[in-house]
Specification:
α6 (154-169) crosses α9. The chain contains 15 helices and eight strands. The chain has three domains: 3-113, no CATH class; 117-273, 3-Layer(aba) Sandwich (Rossmann fold), CATH 3.40.50.10070; 274-384, no CATH class. It is of the alpha/beta class. Residues 114-124 have low confidence and may be disordered. Helix content is 59%, strand content 12%. Strands 3, 4, 5, 6, 7 and 8 form a six-stranded mixed sheet that branches.
C-alpha cells in the first residue's frame, strides 16, 4: 500500500479538511463576537495563531489514532477486519458536510449583517445607530478650530490636533481614524454623529484655539457619538510657553477617559511631545502645517514643501534630541529620493548625496527615539 493510500485509509485527509473548515468557522464566529465586544485586534490574531499551531497536531492524531465505536484507539490496536474505519470515514464526511453548511450560513449572515457597515451607515440606519455599532475604543481627532481674533493660529490648531492624534495612535488598544480622513472635516458643519458614522468611530475629539498676546486658550471635548454626551472636556488658559504641556495633558486625559489599558508610566511615554523646547515645538508645528498646504496648493506646493523642510531643520537644530523633527526632515529627503524627483527635485543633489542626508537624519531619529515603538518605526522606515 502506498503512502498516499495509507494517509487516505487513516482519514488524515478528511481530518485535515475538517480541521481547516472548523478553524475557519471558529475564526468567523470569534471575529463577529469580538467585534461586538470591542476587543482589540490582537485577540483574533491569537485565535488564528492557535489554529495554525494546532493543525499538525490534528494530522498526527489522525495518523496515530482511530475513532471506533468503543472510543479512541491507537492505530496499532485496531483490527482492520472490523468496519470501524469505514464508519469513521462516514462520520468525518458528515462532519465536513455539516461544517460546509455552517460556513455557508455564516457567510450569509455576514453579508446581511455587515452590509453597509464601515464608512457609511446602512440605508435607513441613523448616524447614532451607526456610532453605537462602532467598537467602543475608537476615536477620530478633528482639526481644531482657530478662533483667534487675527486668525493666525491655524498652524498651532492643526499641529496640536495632529500631535494628539499621533500620540493616541501609540495606545495599543485604541483605534484612531486616519489623519487624512478626519482632517477632511475641517471647518465642516456636519453633525458629530454623522461624522463618526462616516469614519466608523464611537468617539470624536474636537476643540478650538484662541490666542491673545502671550496667552493661549485651548478648549477640547471628547464626545460620545451615539448620544452626543461629553465624556470629558477641558479648558486650558496658559502661557504660550506651556503649549507642550497642553498637548501632553490632552493626550493623557483622552486615553484615560477611554479607559485604555495603559499604565501611568506608559501613558506618560505615549503623551510626550518629544521636546522640552517651545521654540523647537513651534517650528515643528509650523512645518506640519506647511507640509499639509504643499499637498493642497499645487501652484505653490514646491515652495511650501521646501519651507516645511526648513522648519523641521530649524526644530532639530534648536533641539538635537527632538526625534520627530529628525523623522520629518528625513522624510523630505526620502521624497527627494523617489525616481520621479531625482532629476526635478528641490534639492538638486545627486541620489547618493540625497541618501546620505536621509540616513543622517533617520539615524538621529532612531538614536533619540523616546520609545521602542518609535525606534522600530524609524528602523522600518529606513529599511524600506
Amino acid at each position: 500500500m502506498s503512502f498516499f493510500e495509507e494517509l487516505k485509509r487513516r482519514n488524515v485527509f478528511r481530518v485535515g479538511i475538517a480541521y481547516v473548515l472548523l478553524g475557519w468557522a471558529v475564526l468567523q464566529g470569534a471575529d463577529f463576537m469580538l467585534d461586538l465586544a470591542g476587543a482589540p485586534d490582537w485577540v483574533i490574531r491569537v485565535f488564528a495563531i492557535a489554529g495554525v499551531v494546532g493543525f499538525p497536531f490534528a494530522l498526527f492524531f489522525a495518523w496515530a489514532f482511530e475513532l471506533t465505536p468503543e472510543g479512541i484507539k491507537r492505530e496499532s490496536e485496531i483490527d482492520r477486519s472490523q468496519p470501524a474505519p469505514t464508519q469513521t470515514g462516514r462520520k468525518l464526511n458528515g462532519i465536513i458536510i455539516g461544517l460546509l453548511v455552517v460556513i455557508i450560513a455564516l457567510m450569509a449572515v455576514e453579508r446581511v449583517w455587515f452590509a453597509g457597515r464601515g464608512s457609511e451607515s446602512a440605508p435607513g440606519q441613523s448616524p447614532e445607530s451607526a456610532a453605537v455599532s462602532a467598537p467602543a475604543k475608537t476615536i477620530a481627532v478633528l482639526p481644531f478650530a482657530d478662533l483667534s481674533q487675527a486668525g493666525d493660529q491655524a498652524w498651532f490648531a492643526d499641529g496640536l490636533a495632529e500631535e494628539i492624534l499621533n500620540a493616541l495612535v501609540r495606545v495599543p488598544d485604541l483605534q484612531v481614524a486616519a489623519r487624512t480622513s478626519s482632517f477632511a472635516y475641517k471647518e465642516s458643519n456636519q453633525d458629530i454623529s454623522e461624522i463618526a458614522a462616516e469614519l466608523g468611530v464611537a468617539h470624536v475629539l474636537e476643540g478650538s484655539v484662541r490666542s491673545a498676546g502671550d496667552r493661549i486658550r485651548v478648549t477640547a471635548q471628547l464626545i460620545r457619538a451615539s448620544d452626543g454626551f461629553h465624556l470629558w472636556s477641558q479648558n486650558y488658559d496658559r502661557d504660550v510657553a506651556d503649549m507642550i504641556g497642553i498637548q501632553e495633558d490632552l493626550a493623557r486625559n483622552i486615553a484615560t477617559a477611554l479607559e485604555t489599558s495603559m499604565d501611568p508610566e506608559a501613558l506618560a511615554v505615549m503623551a510626550q511631545a518629544g521636546t522640552d523646547s517651545v521654540e523647537a515645538y513651534q517650528e515643528y508645528l509650523r512645518g506640519l502645517q506647511l507640509g499639509d498646504q504643499s499637498l493642497n496648493q499645487p501652484d505653490s506646493g514646491e515652495n511650501l514643501f521646501m519651507e516645511s523642510y526648513r522648519r523641521f531643520e530649524r526644530a532639530r537644530e534648536i533641539d538635537p534630541g527632538f526625534a520627530e523633527a529628525h523623522v520629518r526632515a528625513a522624510n523630505f529627503w526620502k521624497v527627494e529620493l523617489t525616481p520621479s524627483r531625482t532629476d526635478t527635485g528641490t534639492s538638486g543633489l545627486q541620489p547618493l548625496e540625497i541618501l546620505r542626508e536621509y540616513n543622517e537624519r533617520i539615524g538621529l531619529a532612531i538614536q533619540n527615539a523616546k520609545s521602542e515603538a518609535d525606534r522600530i518605526r524609524s528602523r522600518a522606515d529606513r529599511a524600506m
